[in-house]
Amino acid sequence: MRIARSLVNSLLSLSSERLADLSPSAAGDVYRLSSAFAAFAGRPLMERLDPRVLKGAMSLVSNALARTPYGSQLEFDHPLVISLSTSSYCPFACCNCYASSGGNRERGRASDRVQLFAKVARSKTPFIILSGGEPLVADGFEECLGLLLDAGKFVFVSTNALVDPSLARQREGQLVFILPVWGDRKRHDARRGAHSFDRLERNLAALNGVGQKPNLHIVLPDNDFSALRDVERLVRQYKINVVTIARRIHTGRVDGTRLVLSASDLSTLDHWRAVLQRHVRRVVCDLPELQSTAAPGRLHSLLGLRNFEGCAAGNWMMHIDDTGQGFPCFSFEGRQHLAVPRHLTIGDQWRAVRQMRAEFPGGVRCPGEYHARLEETV
Ligand code: SF4
């Protein structure tokens, strides 16, 4: 097994060094090889991936493999994924909003945003998720997005606004839209605003029209899974790449009862996962309840890596709010006593976030929710 680890490490570092010089067809071969490798690890790559993104990801993974002691969990020296709040302004004011954003434009000047995006663009992190406030209405958004794309990042944009398909057409292999679903049409509109579900369908049609397959992000606010019937219709009617099923978490920013998923709920979700899987490339059940039951990955065993303890936050993902402060994930946003100062480099912010992760109490499934509840009881 140690030999397998050293072989893979050499292969990754060699490939990432040479990827920039490859012809488009050779780069395609490397992509297919890496894609098979990632699928084997249970984390499939996107259908089309710009070679610079692949190079960034491979160099981060190969560096992590080199620095991780045999038998430990993978230690990234920079986050693999950064979620970034584009602004604190959102015109929709959804009653379910996770972010500490709203109709107030006080924070988030366009010039500050450009600086923040430029800092993230200079980082080694290959995958960036832009969330809100609503990204598509932020002043200077296209310029900011351009900074990330020009730097070779793969960008996911999570939006409730109407997408201009020409934006998606420009950057094949580097840009994917994530469209959240918070219930069936009626319940989604009640939470996300009138006509929000119509807008979601218009976005699906428009993005498919320019050859893009968006991702759907289903958030379950409660044990009513009727939304999944609407989602089944959507995946039959439109071309959709990945469907993620998550549960609503309690962040303390808006009222909400805690969703507890029973064994029978999890088995219903498993049924829906199989139904939806027939129509999309992959369905990911991103539920903290399933973390402890996850089987050790085959690739992890082969390479002598321990499975990550807990969720993405601080293991391979970091969140940055619109003022530049770092957090383990978006659910911590607004908790100033846990904020990592904005003047630090991304690498130093990541080290502070990893340290925070190491101090999370063991056995807590969602540390963000845990901290929100802790504050309510103080
Ligand atoms: S703390 Fe972890 S489980 Fe909770 S919302 Fe953040 S990433 Fe998800």
CATH structural class of the largest domain: Alpha Beta
- Overall strand count: 9
Structural class by helix and strand composition: alpha/beta
Q: How many H/I helices?
A: 13
Distance between the termini: 49 Å
Helix-strand pattern:
HHHEHEHEHEHHEHEHEHEEHH
CATH topology of the largest domain: TIM Barrel
Tally of distinct domains: 2
Sheet with the most strands? 9 strands, mixed
Strand fraction equals 5-15%
Q: State Rg.
A: 20 Å
Q: How do the strands line up in the largest sheet? A: 7-6-5-4-3-2-1-8-9
CATH architecture of the largest domain: Alpha-Beta Barrel
Give the integer mean of the pLDDT values.
84
User: Can you tell me the overall shape?
Assistant: globular
Superfamily at the CATH H level of the largest domain? Aldolase class I
Bound molecules: iron/sulfur cluster
What ranges have pLDDT less than 50 throughout 5 or more consecutive residues? none
The oligomerization state is single chain
